[in-house]
Amino acid sequence: MTTQTTSAPTAAETPKKVRRRPEGSSAVLVGRPGFVWALPATLFFALFAIAPLIMVAVLSFMSWNGLGSPQWVGTDNWNRILDDPVMINSIWLTLLLTALGVAIQTPLSIVLGVWAAGHQRNRAVLSAIYFIPLLLSSTAVSVLWRALLDPNFGIPARATWLFGDGNLFGKQATAIGVLAFVSTWQFTPFHTLIYQGAARAIPDVLYQAAEIDGAGRYRQFFHITLPQLRNSMITSMILMIVGGLTTFETVLILTQGGPGTDTTISAYYMYQKAFKSFDFGAGSAIALCLVVAATIISLIVVRVSGYDKMRSDMEGVS
Hints:
This protein is mostly helical and 318 residues long.
């Protein structure tokens, strides 16, 4: 009687890591894709994001009116914008509009997203209608609301009992309210879409277990749905913050920074400096300030929320 011996497989014969699949399905080899796959996106990002950012950073230390050669002036541009009262006021206005956007859009988009993830009658049709503003550009939305809110021919002129003299763009408080309302009308559907997808990914077994324990719909929402939407909430808030800090078209078309400079936010002030006053050095300094501010605030949100420590593939589970 002979005994067969099998030798250990060599390194070349060792199979790659295999992901288990249900019975009847073939195994799939799992391997990490090489750097070549990321090369096109990396080059695109470097060419259209990193390179312009470096050029803006260099230009912020120069004086240039768009003609001739830029002249090195050191920190003169930075000193001027930091001593400019309009610039300081624009920073506070930018932070105010950003905070209003987060405070208003977050609860609205959560409630609407959870509702859109359900199985109500006519839900799909109503959701499709609600998402229409998401398909429009910021310019088109601003032109639309500028016409609707025109103090002479728009809705305020027909409803003086509600809007008073009808000039919503003539006072700072009402002008800021219009900007916050228009941004909410346009961008809430986008964040609603984020929460809709996240809510549909929540396992039904959690709600079934809660029903067995006697939890009602409201307790399920606050103790299951909201905790499970934590990751999506942080992502949505970061997008709101970055979007709020870089808002431009809405102010340009609706208020043009007025009345006076009461709605002149930092992005619009950058436009005024660079393309109206032809002070591209100061405009570049303001643009760099916006980039740095958006990055710092986003990192703070990620760190405080603990989002950077979450490693689970399941939504809301750390």
